[in-house]
Amino acid sequence: MDTHAEPTAVVPQDSSLHPAINRREALTALSALGLGALASSALAQAPQQGGMAAGGRGHLTPEMLGWDPAAKQYVLPKLKYPYDALEPHIDAQTMEIHHSKHHQGYVNGLNKAMAELDKIRRGEGDKSLIKHWSREVAFHGGGHVNHSLFWLCMAPEGWGGKNPSLDLASHISRDFGSFEAFIEHFAAAAGAVEGSGWAWLMYDFVSGRLIITQMEKQQNLSMTGAAPLLGIDVWEHAYYLKYQNKRADYVKAWFNVVNWAMVDELFALARGL
Ligand code: MN3
Question: What is the DSSP letter of 154?
């Protein structure tokens, strides 16, 4: 991959794939998803920007981020591509089970935990269970955020370009040495997660640098104050049907379906652009 390549994002012809966006609603959704830092950073710049849609950006909607503004509930986001669209790299059966069963489970668990905590606050629940429901929020909420971003950060080959934008690519080169060094580091981090978890490319607000982190389960070891930009799920449910124990092969294949245009979008949002 060429660090200095021109952006190669290919916009799908079906305009319904990129619905118009209301910036405030998207920011609300980012907040609801627990991406408060990402949302507040974007919000801080909102008056100067006049909306993402006006700037040519704005692929994100609350629904895509897993939030129903009307019901004020977390929802399973619809995918922007069919379950078989990531073949041969990610097989259709894995995608269907992963999205409709596993992710739905996190949505249900998160809504349930939020409702139970609400009951306790109203004096109708068992206060001794606050610790239990708080852990449920962390685990299922983490799972919901992670997967909502995971679906967005993948796309059929060619949709999101083969490389990050020049802007993101230059930051990657600055912070990791080169694009190749970044890929190597990211793949190694993903391969070395013990048990179930994730590897993430994140933007650290404090240092203003890109970092790579590992995440155990859905949230352990996660870093607050950094915005997730690109993550790979290395739970076995994400790859076992096709790749069995060969996680490294899955990680290598997965890079073919990275939606760099969306990663660019999240990177811009994180910096309030
Ligand atoms: Mn998963």
Answer: B
pLDDT at 6: 38
- How do residues 158-205 score in pLDDT, each as one tens digit? 888 889 999 999 999 999 999 999 999 999 999 999 999 999 999 999
CB 243 within 8 A of CB 234: no
Mean predicted lDDT score pLDDT of the chain: 87
Distance CA 255, CA 1 (A): 11
pTM, rounded to two decimals: 0.86
Query: From the CA of 11, how far away is ligand 1's center (Å)?
Result: 27
Phi first, then psi, for residue 147 (nearest 5°) are -70, -35
> Is the CB of residue 148 less than 8 Å from the CB of residue 66?
yes
- pLDDT tens for residues 231-266? 999 999 999 999 999 999 999 999 999 999 999 999
Q: What residues does the ion ligand 1 have nearby, CB within 5 Å? A: 233, 235
User: How many CB atoms neighbour CB 131 within 10 A?
Assistant: 9
Closest by CA position to 213, among listed 222, 205, 60, 204: 222
Contact 180, 169 (CB under 8 A): no
- Collapsed DSSP state (helix, strand, coil) of residue 45: helix
Query: For residue 164, is the peptide bond before it cis, meaning its omega torsion is within 30 degrees of 0?
Result: no
Find the 214 Cα to ligand 1 centroid distance in Å.
Answer: 14
Q: Residues 6 or more apart from 96 whose CB is under 8 A from it?
A: 83
Q: How far is the CA of 72 from the centre of ligand 1 (A)?
A: 24
Of 223, 177, 180, the closest CA to residue 200 belongs to 223
Residue indicated by tokens 């739970």 = 235
Say if residue 258 is exposed, middle or buried (CB neighbours under 10 Å; 0-12, 13-18, 19+).
buried
Measured from the Cβ of residue 252, the count of other Cβ atoms closer than 10 Å reads 16
